[in-house]
């Protein structure tokens, strides 16, 4: 159905993430080595590139030139299907979407759109995910 375009991790919160080709996703935790892992409801962030259509023209260059702030960048899944309560399979892993966006919107860089349209959730099945892997709704 869809495709993993990039995988991104950081050892600290609040900084741009580094892209990797493959990652181990840990059930009930998140991405191995990522600062957002833990026992909470935002273990993983997913950004569908289709959401870029919601970025105002005056913000587009800023959003596109900002570094990655999401764990997974995906394409090919309609936004309305990436709703709260859905489970997304990325490679071998599965993530249950618990939130769309954040409570507080960011106004600059890539966080502008990720804070509004990113999907956040818990890992319900661990496994390996590689760039180019298929993304499916369960």
TrEMBL record:
SUPFAM superfamilies xref list: PK beta-barrel domain-like (SSF50800)
GO function terms (MF aspect): catalytic activity; molybdenum ion binding; pyridoxal phosphate binding
InterPro entries per the UniProt record, alphabetical: MoCF_Sase_C, MOSC_domain, Pyrv_Knase-like_insert_dom_sf
PROSITE patterns: MOSC
Domain MOSC: 18-138
Superkingdom of this protein's organism: Bacteria
Membrane-spanning residues: none
PANTHER family named in the record: METAL-SULFUR CLUSTER BIOSYNTHESIS PROTEINS YUAD-RELATED (PTHR36930), MOSC DOMAIN-CONTAINING PROTEIN (PTHR36930:SF1)
Protein name in UniProt: MOSC domain-containing protein
Species in which this protein is naturally found: Pelotomaculum thermopropionicum (strain DSM 13744 / JCM 10971 / SI)
